[in-house]
Amino acid sequence: MKTQAQTVSIAVVGSGYVGLVAAACFAEIGHRVICVDNDESKVRMLQAGGVPIHEEHLPELLSRHRGDRLEFTTDLRAATQAAEAIFIAVGTPQSQTGSADLSYVDAVASEIARSIDSYKVIVEKSTVPVYTNEWIRRVIERNGVSKELFDVTSNPEFLREGTAVVDFLHADRIVLGTATERAGNLLKSIYHPLTCGDYYNVPGSVPGPRESNDPPPILLTSTKAAEIIKHASNAFLATKISFINAVANVCEAAGADIEEVARGIGMDSRIGPKFLRAGVGYGGSCFPKDVAAFRNVAEQVGVDFGLLREVEKINDEQKQRFFQKIRSALWTFRAKKIGVLGLAFKGGTDDVRESPALDIVKRLVAEGCIVTAYDPAAADRCKELIPPGPCMRYVDELYAAAQDADALLILNDWEEFAELDLSKLHYTLRYPIVIDGRNLYDPETMTKNGFTYLSVGRPGLSQPIDPVAAFFVPRRRDDTRA
Ligand code: UDX
Question: What is the pLDDT of residues 406-426, one digit of tens each?
Fold first, then answer.
């Protein structure tokens, strides 16, 4: 029976954000890992040293362990047979009804079942509705595998894109949902290098908030509780964001500053300061999908979770409101040149799934604007969805997006967007109008620097912007352009 730090043979099925990061991190803490994906070209790329996603520390972990403790394959059968624990980290996309589409999980569970030849611990890592554990168990039994040969457990992952490796290795908590001691012990031994604190003393270990005397705690739960913990965590965080966005709208109407209000709310230790940043609404591959899926799960067990409908509604409206704000500053859209900073759903990632920025850009292009966009990492992914053309240009340099633009929009929160050279920006823009969907600047500073500055939930925005005045902001004296 394993309880202490030992090398465990692990298979991770799926090489998306969660699967690839988990595989690299398990190798980093000393395990032998085979990462499986049915996408042959992706596996070839990973075998050849490629890194398919933009994620801090991931390239260094992959190059440190690839070909040694970390392998990539398309052969799920061989990986299953070699592994003691098999983590399922395949996609659970949103179906048309809003529920999670579990067909990939189902297919993987069946294939694992057909390959089992000795005791295995099967671990749900993907975000799945409550009872999925139960279903996986049934699928495996239906394929003729006896109960003694496997356990199904739940070990939800809470990593954020952009900080995924640090989130994994320096977790707030490690939730292990399991019904048997045998499976629980194997899972505990997998995470032991983290939970005993040893990893944080290893030279070259990835730095982060945890230290050897403050390692992440383990929370042992039932499998159902673990499944609900994951959905409820994401739904709660999304609720926090929609709440603060709704408060921002109150501030905007009342002439108060949401930044001051959020600081005041967040100083209450029962509430906390995180996830209280007002903006253009949440996006990404998790929150929109998981809020809908959790609402759906609740419905299926007979609970009307109306609060989550409201969370979704506020989030949709937040994008509309921001769009109206742009309109209020520009009056008309046709042939207006708009500079855009930020395409990914947040800074620090190249992921454009459910990105509020993309939504806004699409609408601007549809209304006849000429958009020039810059994002440090997401432009290539964005090009697949909005191809470059006369109305949509992508540039590799931040100020090139602002060049001669009628207004500049800030749509996500890359650090460099908060460090603009204001006089250079003023000179570069055709009209010094900045519409900031992430509140990266102090309105007073922007006004002093000659900008018409609109942001989210801050004073002065209760009055409609005077569109005429916006176009007669004095130019800089050294502006020699025609
Ligand atoms: C989220 C969860 O945080 C993570 O635990 C889970 O495993 C996956 O989903 P992620 O989607 O990577 O992670 O992004 P996150 O940093 O949580 O941000 C989600 C969205 O909310 C982004 O669009 C972000 O810009 C927005 N957001 C976040 C706000 O608008 N305000 C905030 O205060 C925080």
Answer: 999 999 999 999 999 999 999
Ligand 1, atom 1, residue with closest C-alpha:
160
Query: Which residue has its alpha carbon closest to ligand 1 atom 33?
Result: 275
Q: Which atom of ligand 1 is nearest to the CA of 158?
A: 7
Residues 317 and 314: their CA atoms lie apart, in Å, by 5
Catalytic status, residue 35? no
228: number of Cβ within 10 Å: 21
pLDDT at 461 over 50: no
CA-234 nearest atom, ligand 1 = 2
| Cα-Cα-Cα-Cα dihedral sign, residues 363, 378, 91, 234 | negative
Q: Identify the pLDDT of residue 4.
A: 54
Q: What is the pLDDT of residue 476?
A: 46
Q: What is the pLDDT of residue 100?
A: 84
Mutating to test ligand 1, I would choose from 25, 54, 265, 282 the residue with most ligand atoms within 8 A of its C-beta, which is 282
Which domains does the chain carry?
9-221 (3.40.50.720), 222-482 (3.40.50.720)
Average pLDDT of every residue of the chain: 93
Given a cut of 60, is residue 479 above it in pLDDT?
no
Q: Do 456 and 356 meet the contact criterion of CB atoms below 8 Å apart?
A: no
Please give the structure tokens belonging to residue 355.
Answer: 């990105």
Establish how many alpha carbons lie within 13 A of residue 181's alpha carbon, considering only the half-sphere containing its beta carbon.
2
Q: In sequence order, what DSSP letters do the residues of 351-404 get, joined into one string?
A: --TT-HHHHHHHHHHHTT-EEEEE-TTTHHHHHHHS--BTTEEE-SSHHHHHTT
pLDDT of 326-338, one tens digit each?
999 999 999 999 9
Contact between 69 and 9 (Cβ < 8 Å): no
